[in-house]
C-alpha cells in the first residue's frame, strides 16, 4: 500500500508496496533511532519511535506548524517532544478543512508560546460543517434559549402571584386585628362607664315602718 503525506505545499509519497501502515521518518530523532539530546544517555533509544527511526501516521497528514516539523517543543529550551504532534513532525487531519482564523494558520499564540486553543496547534479546522447544518444548530440554540426565557418568565409570574397572595393575607389579618382591637376598646370604655355610674349611684334609705318590721322579724 502506498500512502501519501500531504503538506501545505506539496504531496509526498511515503511507504511502498506491501507496507501495512503509512510510515515516515521520525522527526524527533531525524530517523537515527537515538534520543537526540542523549537523555538519559547517548545510547538511549528515541522516546518517539522507540529506536526504529520511523513512526506510523494516519493519512492524510500535514506538517506540524507548531514545531515546524521538528518534533521538538518550540518556544522553550526544553528537550521535550512537541505537545501538538507528539514528536512525529506531522499531524493527522480530516477533510475538508480550512486555516484557523484565530492563529492565521500558525498554530500558536507567539506571545504566550502555547498552541492555539481553537485549532489545538494544528493551524487548521477540520470537519467543516455545511452552512445548513450550522443554521440548524443556530435555530436549535435559539429555540432552547426561547424555552428557557419562557420558563424563567413563568417562574417569575408564579413567584409574583405567591408574593401578592401573601401580602393580601397579611393585610386582611392586620385589618381584622385592627377591628378586633377597636371592639375591645369600645367594650372596655363601656365597662368603665358602667362602673363609674354605679359608684355615683346614692345608697337606698329605709323608711321607719320598714325598719320596725325588719326588727320584729329579727326578734321573732
Strand content: 5-15%
Order of secondary-structure elements: EEEEEEEEEEHH
User: Which structural category fits the helices and strands?
Assistant: alpha+beta
> What is the helix fraction of residues, given as a range?
25-40%
- Number of individual domains: 2
Mean pLDDT reading: 79
CA-based shape: rod-shaped
Poorly predicted ranges (pLDDT <50, ≥5 residues)?
1-19
Quick one: how many beta strands?
A: 10
The value of Rg in angstroms is: 49 Å
Distance between the termini: 151 Å
- Main sheet, how many strands, which sense, barrel? 2 strands, antiparallel
**Number of alpha- plus pi-helical segments:** 2
Strand order of the largest sheet: 1-2
Structure description:
Helix content is about 35%, strand content about 15%. It is α+β, with helices and mostly antiparallel strands. The chain folds into 2 domains: about 130 residues, no CATH class; about 70 residues. The strands form 5 sheets. A two-stranded antiparallel sheet has the order 1-2. A two-stranded antiparallel sheet has the order 3-4. The N terminus is likely disordered.
Amino acid at each position: 500500500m502506498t500512502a501519501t503525506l500531504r503538506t501545505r505545499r506539496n504531496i509526498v509519497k511515503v511507504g511502498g508496496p506491501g507496507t501495512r501502515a503509512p510510515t515516515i521518518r521520525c522527526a524527533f530523532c531525524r530517523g537515527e533511532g537515538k534520543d537526540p539530546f542523549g537523555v538519559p544517555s547517548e545510547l538511549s533509544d528515541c522516546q518517539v519511535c522507540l529506536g526504529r527511526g520511523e513512526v506510523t501516521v494516519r493519512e492524510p497528514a500535514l506538517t506540524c506548524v507548531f514545531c515546524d516539523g521538528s518534533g521538538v517543543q518550540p518556544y522553550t529550551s526544553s528537550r521535550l517532544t512537541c505537545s501538538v504532534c507528539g514528536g512525529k513532525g506531522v499531524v493527522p487531519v480530516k477533510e475538508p478543512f480550512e486555516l484557523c482564523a484565530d492563529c492565521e494558520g500558525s498554530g500558536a499564540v507567539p506571545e504566550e508560546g502555547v498552541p492555539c486553543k481553537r485549532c489545538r496547534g494544528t493551524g487548521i479546522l477540520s470537519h467543516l460543517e455545511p452552512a445548513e447544518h450550522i443554521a440548524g444548530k443556530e435555530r436549535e440554540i435559539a429555540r432552547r434559549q426561547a424555552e428557557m426565557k419562557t420558563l424563567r418568565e413563568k417562574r417569575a409570574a408564579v413567584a409574583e402571584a405567591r408574593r401578592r397572595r401573601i401580602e393580601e393575607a397579611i393585610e386582611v389579618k392586620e385589618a381584622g386585628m385592627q377591628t378586633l382591637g377597636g371592639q375591645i376598646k369600645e367594650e372596655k370604655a363601656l365597662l368603665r362607664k358602667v362602673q363609674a355610674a354605679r359608684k355615683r349611684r346614692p345608697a337606698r334609705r329605709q323608711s321607719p315602718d320598714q325598719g320596725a318590721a325588719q326588727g320584729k322579724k329579727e326578734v321573732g
